[in-house]
């Protein structure tokens, strides 16, 4: 099984950015834990702060991978383009969020990803990614 985790803008700052919301662990450290937890899965990771680069990556993996675990960050609430990219590929996508976006600002309660995603996981901290991977098993 081949799964990719995609992270959008500012998620490269995990471990530094607002630790009271996002925790103090870097995603790179957590990704190493995920690879150990799921040794039978070909797990890869990609992060970009650029919307077009995320769209390109979805197009690249969207017909050959078994799953995408996608935290589009703020693009979740603004990017029609990412929603359309997900709609246009065959690989199922799970939308994940570290925080409970529904308990935050009103604008964070709108997702352009969700209508085209297989499901949504939010509010479980970094464990949201773990749950996203498990949803494909």
Automatic annotation (TrEMBL):
CDD domains: DHQase_II. The record marks 17 as: Transition state stabilizer. Pathway: Metabolic intermediate biosynthesis; chorismate biosynthesis; chorismate from D-erythrose 4-phosphate and phosphoenolpyruvate: step 3/7. It catalyses: 3-dehydroquinate = 3-dehydroshikimate + H2O. PROSITE patterns: DEHYDROQUINASE_II. The keyword ATP-binding does not apply. Its EC number is 4.2.1.10. It is an enzyme of class 4 (lyase). GO terms for molecular function: 3-dehydroquinate dehydratase activity. Substrate binds at residues 71, 77, 84, 98-99, 108. The active site is at residues 22, 97. Homododecamer. Catalyzes a trans-dehydration via an enolate intermediate. This is 3-dehydroquinate dehydratase.
